[in-house]
């Protein structure tokens, strides 16, 4: 009999982008004359505990004492935290809805602000384990419940021992208290979550480093909002490229490598290329870059890239014909938009197609030689697999056809195999 999977998720700097007590301090001490010095002390206590250099209990006691917070401050904090949910958790809200019985939030933070935030994601209140504040009659926070095991050093281990859960337990978090669950043998695997902060002392102890929740879902073959984690998409930046251009790509989650030349070790695995003005891409390199999907050129690509070969290979090219300074960001944005939505608007070699993202659907891209009858074959495949099409777009040029199909039904991998086998197919990919 298969054991049930249980997902134990941290809150601060994991489910949310920030440390909630640090944020609460910035609210409650907003008018305090020594606020910056106090903020620094609170952040230091947080980091020392997260890195395992200070007991959690001591860290928590010191932070709560410095807060000078009230219930009104908590209300402001909750509003702020709802806007600070980590992007990869936010876009995978459907996962939490479908797996509500298997998801636990286990945190050294406080229920008073955690519950209103995670409850939006269908996480059950009885599955939220955290500390609780002690307040006075007029709403001042003066202490916390010291009898709660989560207020102590090794609190997550103590709690999980008490719960004695049966099944395959997986832990996701950014701090030392999350790793302690693995060290104790109570969980099967520990995933170091690094979307918001990467602590070297924790990363090196993890079973797997997950730069996003998409990555966790992907490696565990669980349903997710995007088909392939962005951290696995290799974006190679070549030459003297402005840091602003690189920062945009990095912010969107792609795995960035910045090199002075197109090194041989990257040719077979690169998905995206951003080239500085003057850089060249040889036909041999292009032909062997079988995973390449898009090229951004920060200048005029004429005589630097074989556009015809790119088109035949299904590679979308965006370049800067007029050397416009704004294209430092414009070109990377076009690459990002293509990778995220399939939009080819203003590309140099592909049919011009501008697409919105359609929620609660899957988007499939089929690039093929422009010969008669391909769309009929594509739709025959969908019909054979009982796929309901909610939107379909086709644009062509003399060389290729570019078809986008949005479907709202579940599918199996045999559908992909069938679409790839259609004669004259150049490339096929699932966006989300």
Strand-residue proportion: 15-25%
Main sheet strand line-up: 3-2-1-6-7-8
* The first-level CATH class name of the largest domain: Alpha Beta
According to CATH, what is the topology of the largest domain? Rossmann fold
Report the principal-axis shape. Answer: globular
Quickly give the structural class. Answer: alpha/beta
**Average pLDDT score:** 94
> N-to-C terminal Cα separation, in Å?
32 Å
pLDDT < 50 stretches: none
- The count of β-strands is 17
The CATH H-level superfamily of the largest domain is: HAD superfamily/HAD-like
Helix coverage percent: 25-40%
Cα radius of gyration in angstroms:
25 Å
Question: Count of helical segments?
Answer: 19
Number of domains: 3
What does the largest sheet look like?
6 strands, parallel
Tell me the CATH architecture of the largest domain: 3-Layer(aba) Sandwich
Keywords: Amino-acid biosynthesis, Hydrolase, Magnesium, Metal-binding, Serine biosynthesis
InterPro entries: ACT-like_dom_sf, ACT_dom, AHAS_small-like_ACT, D-isomer_2_OHA_DH_cat_dom, HAD-like_SerB, HAD-like_sf, HAD_sf
Function: Catalyzes the reversible oxidation of 3-phospho-D-glycerate to 3-phosphonooxypyruvate, the first step of the phosphorylated L-serine biosynthesis pathway. Also catalyzes the reversible oxidation of 2-hydroxyglutarate to 2-oxoglutarate.
Domain ACT: 363-432
